[in-house]
Amino acid sequence: MSLFTLDLHGVRHHEVGLEVENFIFLNQEHAPLIIICGNSARMIELVSNFLDKHKIEYYPGKGFDYGRITIFKI
Hints:
Layout: E1 4-7, H1 16-27, E2 33-36, H2 41-53, E3 57-60, E4 68-73
Parallel strand pairs: 1-2
Antiparallel strand pairs: 2-4, 3-4
């Protein structure tokens, strides 16, 4: 099983919604999907808000996985 990954390093906050939307809906048949937000609490919040708005099931990383969001069901 190959995990599809979107790395948001270098993406500006105002571009996050479009980047995440394109990634998820173009790769939804390949779930689980990974989004790397890095250490930015704001970036994690933006991605989480988008996923909550679209009722997408995800798991926010904790501990060593902080900054990584795994999407399970779209």
